[in-house]
Amino acid sequence: GVDQGTLDFLRLSKWWRNVKGSGPRNVSRAVEFSEAFTAQTMVQVGLTTWDMGNHSNARGDIRAENVTETGIDLVVRICSDTRIVRVSVSWLAIGCVADPDQ
Prior knowledge:
The chain is mainly beta and 102 residues long. It contains one helix and six strands, in the order E-H-E-E-E-E-E.
């Protein structure tokens, strides 16, 4: 089975409190799969939008954490003096699903 989606972190009010300043900052958002997998799934994440200020280096990462049969946590971390306005993350989950014939 395959499930996929995109999450725009711009819409998170918590994110707006963390876009300025320095040091490590992160925001996490839970994603629920449209159908549960029968075992822990493989997940791939990628940036689809990365809108940042141009007065500092861009430092950060994205990852899927707490991967289960029913969902994941998407995490965006930025560090140093990186200033982010908007980040969108796409995710793709691939794994086994129940066979309706069994």
